[in-house]
Design goal:
This protein is an alpha+beta fold. The chain has five helices and seven strands, in the order αβααβββββαβα.
Length: about 180
Amino acid sequence: MVDPKIAGRMQPYLMAGERLTWTGQPPAGLMLGARDLFLIPFSMMWGGFAIFWESNVLRSGAPGFFALWGVPFVLIGLYLIFGRFFVDAWVRGRTSYALTNGRALVLRSVFGERLLTTNLNGSVEVRDRRGERGTLGFSRQDFGDLLNAMRGFSIWMPSLDDRVQFLKIDRVMDVYRLAAGRP
């Protein structure tokens, strides 16, 4: 359950006496979640209105300022509709997970390396479980966390969430048992 390639990337971040018990990565490709039930319609409304505005401005022959004013809104709309899925998949492709005998680690190699880590102190939960795949969270999600996510990019791209979590991993219950100290 320890991939040598991921273990090599994690090695510099291990503490003295710490050993890897599991490594993994999030799935590749398009990843939809429950939040997309709200985000997809919102992004379609934003993008649709921005494109409607910009096309009307261009057809009416309005001054150049009005044509330029709508461009950022169209670009944001296109990003929210399509681009965020590609960026999220790109970030997940550069993310590795590891469990040690004492910590959970998330290593992102996006414009440099960023390590998120937390001690395994029993606060492990399984979320979004579908069969053998699910998300393993190492801090409980509450309403305050959701509000914080809405202020940042993590609501749009779960792979950029600052919480230590293993997104949609295979064999989630096996990894949960390892993290909870019950092999």
